[in-house]
Target: D-xylose 1-dehydrogenase (NADP(+), D-xylono-1,5-lactone-forming)
Amino acid sequence: MSSLIRRIFRAYFPQSVPKFEHTADSKPIKFGILGAANIAPLALITPAKTHPEVVIYAVAARDLKRAEAYAKMYGIHKVYGGSTSYQELLDDPEIEAVYNPLPNGLHFEWTMKALQAGKHVLCEKPIASAEETRQMFDLADKKGLVLLEAVHYRFHPAIQRVKAILDSGELGKIKSIDAKMGFLAGFVKDNDIRFNFDLAGGSTMDLGCYTLNCIRYLSSSNPTSVISATALPLKSANIQETKIDRAMTATLALPDDVVATLDTDLAIPWTLIPPAKSIRIWVEVKCEGGDLTLVNFVLPTFWHSIKVSTKAGSTITTRTEKVYKFADVHLENGPGDSNTLDLGSDWWLTYRYQLEAFVDKLKGRSPQTWITREDSIANMEWVEKIYEKAGIGARPVSQYMAETH
Ligand SMILES: NC(=O)C1=CN([C@@H]2O[C@H](COP(=O)(O)OP(=O)(O)OC[C@H]3O[C@@H](n4cnc5c(N)ncnc54)[C@H](OP(=O)(O)O)[C@@H]3O)[C@@H](O)[C@H]2O)C=CC1
Ligand SMILES: O=C1OC[C@@H](O)[C@H](O)[C@H]1O
Model:
């Protein structure tokens, strides 16, 4: 328990760990944030405090007062406010990298504009439609800029350890993968961007992008078909949006007779949750020689558990692993540099590992993990196929006519 509290404390109050000071020579990368977004403190501002090569330099918000209050609260030097503030931030020559945590439906427009302005971009998940994603990476490539979809959980050693166990053959061939992510009702409010169809909301976009990504990552494959997909609409007195999937259940066929299911829910009814399942963020892989379950694959820093059961005849042997930093992990032929084992601390959030990789890429170093263009595009293709199969259609694409040169 004490290490749980210590991890959470250090993750949220990185001032408590040995500090570094930026010097005139250190020339940190100046980041600008588009929007005074709820997620930015956890996903970038706090992780940046322990990265010696990063400074969160500016924030833009549609309302100046909101931008000012946000900047004050998080110690951000420069503020842009008002209806033209996002573009003004992009035009700031001091800024080298832009974090785009806008609603999903605005990712395409503002990432394209950021790339046009010559900025590297860390764009929140789910990145955009598959076709838009292609255009975003084409432009990034053309401009020689870094673009990364913030699929943060993939940068953490816990999921990489799970992948290494599966790839090692210890459990034999994969038969099925079941990935779930959901929140109890009330966590997401009716007016949240996640329940707004025009802003490309829905649980498959918000949570399904993780579960699908996890299925694709652990199986090292893309689905071959969507066998079934059922969307549950949001039943709310305030929202009559039938195209918003409060919840989605989909079954996917994968190569080699692997079957996967994903389950997402932005408002799980309280009565349906037995206490043991109250953390509804897990992936379970059944193999010919045993099973593996990772509980809390998305935010493993706080707490997670990797349970591995191997079968030998009628004997089942079970062990539990926890992997908070790379030094804890056995990654045979693991990805990235040979100094992987030195990377990270047990309190590093997935976002801190992700920031390390983003900066490494930007500096021309070799990141420990990367989410490739192909990975981002394939994930969105299958999100769209799930929506089509469920009969509620893919999310609307942006009306923004991008300059692509
Ligand atoms: N990586 C992760 O773990 C997480 C990722 N996310 C992703 O981050 C993104 C933002 O999520 P979250 O921080 O919860 O979102 P917020 O509700 O905080 O919205 C983000 C910003 O969007 C801006 N915005 C611009 N136009 C609109 C509009 N028409 N309606 C509403 N907001 C608008 C607002 O900017 P302004 O301040 O200028 O008004 C707001 O600050 C999403 O893509 C989500 O999927 C979210 C949570 C976790
Ligand atoms: O990690 C997350 O948890 C909460 C979700 O609603 C959010 O969008 C997601 O990225």
Observations:
- The longest helix spans residues 373-390.
